[in-house]
Recover the amino acids of this structure.
């Protein structure tokens, strides 16, 4: 019993503390049901996925498994109001989707305003591992980025490819078919790309997600690679796994988070070819676009354009002070051909990069949705 006149406070943490701003993901994949690529569902808890009314019942297939894995790896607590992953979206492309089903699903995902990740899941013959589908997703993501909606796609390697050189060939421009995009992360496993995306989502955008081990990945789940294979895959733009040699007891980690554009080509590599650098710039550019949209109907004079440029620069300046970015440049101009279009050009140097990543977005009034 506390002393008279003394107020006694006690704080008890009942769940693990969550960190990070989080991301909203769209899982696109196969089920045992008829496909509905023009529709999307939203889930806060996995139980909703199993409910035949709100989800897919017992017929959720690979899509339901992906949702389960995402929630298990990404959530450190059970309160969606404070968790960095408050919900996710899902699009069912059926059991035997065509390429048109996948591209339709990408168009459907574009309607989801708060989406930040696309994750493809499916069986070996579903198309989820086809380079044509990956490139179609890359094109869709590039188109959205030009409009100010910045998203990253995650895919897993085909289960039929296990040799490191064969996996590395997925990003080789010398091949007839390949993927090379700073918006597509190819992961060295047919299924663990879901957990890579979840792990990235719960970290701050400037953090390397390989800084700590996975929560739900067992050492037996990852493909064991020697040092030369790990380096081959990293240099090819494939995100792979390892048992961190100094703390192996803590479980598998991401070896290095790279995008499929990381491979040196004609002596050059894009500055945004690492996952956390791309996401850091996307987060900053996204803030700039949201400010511009909020001021859209006031931007009728040169003075207003200058004021918007100053407003965006002031926010970037704060991130520079915090060490999140090293430097930046911002230019806001009225489109020469149409006064209802605002062009925003940004050059962002994220920590720890020594080079600028350039981002261009076009804001159009009154249509500002994807």
């Amino acid at each position: 019993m506390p002393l008279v006149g003394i107020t006694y406070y006690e704080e008890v943490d009942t769940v693990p503390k969550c960190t990070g701003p989080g991301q909203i993901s769209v899982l696109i994949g196969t089920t045992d049901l008829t496909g509905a690529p023009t529709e999307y569902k939203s889930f806060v808890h996995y139980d909703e996925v199993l409910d035949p009314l709100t989800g897919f019942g017992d017929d959720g297939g690979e899509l339901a498994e992906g949702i389960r894995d995402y929630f298990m790896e990404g959530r450190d607590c059970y309160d969606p109001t404070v968790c960095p992953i408050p919900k996710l979206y899902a699009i069912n492309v059926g059991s035997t989707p065509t390429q048109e089903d996948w591209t339709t699903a990408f168009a459907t995902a574009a309607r989801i305003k708060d989406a930040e990740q696309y994750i493809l899941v499916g069986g070996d013959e579903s198309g989820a591992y086809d380079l044509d589908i990956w490139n179609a997703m890359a094109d869709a993501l590039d188109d959205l980025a030009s409009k100010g909606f910045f998203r990253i796609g995650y895919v897993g390697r085909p289960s039929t490819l296990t040799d490191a050189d064969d996996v590395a060939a997925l990003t080789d421009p010398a091949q007839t078919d390949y993927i090379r995009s700073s918006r597509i992360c190819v992961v060295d496993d047919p299924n663990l790309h879901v957990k890579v995306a979840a792990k990235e989502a719960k970290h701050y955008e400037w953090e390397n997600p390989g800084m700590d081990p996975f929560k739900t990945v067992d050492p037996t789940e990852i493909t064991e690679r020697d040092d030369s294979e790990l380096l081959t895959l990293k240099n090819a733009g494939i995100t792979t796994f390892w048992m961190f040699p100094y703390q192996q007891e803590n479980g598998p980690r991401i070896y290095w988070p790279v995008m499929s554009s990381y491979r040196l080509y004609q002596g050059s590599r894009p500055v945004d070819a690492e996952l956390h650098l791309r996401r850091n710039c996307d987060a900053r550019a996204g803030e700039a676009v949201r400010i511009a949209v909020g001021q859209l109907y006031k931007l009728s004079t040169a003075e207003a354009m200058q004021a918007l440029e100053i407003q965006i620069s002031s926010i970037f300046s704060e991130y520079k002070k915090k060490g999140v970015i090293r430097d930046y440049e911002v230019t806001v101009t009225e489109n020469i051909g149409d006064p209802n279009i605002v062009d925003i050009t940004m050059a962002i140097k994220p920590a720890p990069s020594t080079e600028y990543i350039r981002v261009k977005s076009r804001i159009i009034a009154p249509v500002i949705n994807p």
Observations:
- The CA atoms of residues 174 and 345 lie 32 Å apart.
- The chain has nine helices and twelve strands.
- Residues 1-16 have pLDDT under 50 and may be disordered.
- The longest helix spans residues 302-322.
